[in-house]
Give the backbone structure.
Amino acid sequence: MLQILIYGAVSSAIYAMLAVGFTLIFGVARILNLAHGSFYALGAYSAFTMTSLLGLPLLVAAPLSVLVVALFGVVMERLLVRPLRQSQLAVLMITLAVSLAVEQALFLTFGSEYRNVPSFIAEKIAIGGVDISGQRLLALAVGVAVLLALWLVIQRTRLGAAILAVSQDPEAAQYMGIPTNRIFSIVMAISAGTAALAGILVSPFLTVQPGMGLLPMVKAFAIVIVGGLGSIPGSIIAALILGYSETAVAYLASTAWTELVSLVAVVATLMIRPSGIFGRRAAF
């Protein structure tokens, strides 16, 4: 039971980081970004490149990787998404194209072999008789810290007030002098950076390969459907539900069944409450 509690918390924290970024960009810009999983993969590969190929310490490579991916998200938003934002279908198509292009670029650059990223903490830590890697505990701690920091920014800062205003009524916010396009870029940077950080944190204990962004994208999409599109609290609660459910299934049955958990959760949500747990259009 203690193993389920600990490992479920780690999975939930990573899922929440992915899902919050995904639902944040939807809540503010009203777009579904199918390239979100690419940010996760680019974060892991950037950390690998900077540590293994450039020889940088991981403590330096990690923030640089987050910054690089955040800038990539901003460039994508300005050059590809912004001109097409009036058409949701066009945005879906262009972000899907970016996702496929990133995967192929990673494949051509690094090949199909699995890559290894060094751990921040290599030692194992015993908690109540359960041995867990320090890297997993670090992923949990950083995930919680990032979610708390994001909440504080949104609720306690002028930037957060501007994000809230744009999420509720972009046109009215623009009339009040809020630069909506700049807010869209900032939110995309936050979304991309958060996903990249999740990829960096899990890369030491999960496989790093070109197609690694697909499954997190599916998980994030399932979580925001269960939690409610545009609801950050809903995404966090749904991440907890899926994270613990998958961990329990893996320990009590088999890891082969874990991927069905998100599918069952999505189907059940669409049948019982199609809008999700906290479904609404506003971001918060």
